[in-house]
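Issue 218. Parser rejects a valid record. Input:
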Amino acid sequence: MKRTASAHWTGDLKSGAGSLTTATKTLSETPYSFHSRFEEGAGTNPEELLAAAHAGCFTMALSLQLQLAGLKADSLETTCTITMEPVDGAPTITGSHLELKGKVPGATEESFLAAAQGAEKGCPVSRLYKTAITMNATLID
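Output the parser choked on:
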């Protein structure tokens, strides 16, 4: 399975702007810029999208772990916070923190924690943070 999104950008870093589009058009020319990433401007930013992806993926993985344990959640709420800070003078994503609240009938603290730990290990986005990134680059006229 492969999923695709694209970015378009014009101009320099601080005064330029871009848009993000996903193949499903859930994001369709969604604006992003230096201001939306590093200040308080309108639009989204890569870190916010990473946080949404990690929260969504982890929560789905948790529902599977609970199912495997014979449990079904009434509700699961996951908030992800991506941390970006300078490392060796360059902005670097240094962490992803998940904050989880769940209402799961029949679960004990122990079974809920075990399911959450299993979800963290099995979530594809969590696993992405431990893999190598590959790239092809082509300059066009």
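Fixed in the parser; the record now loads. The mean pLDDT is 90.
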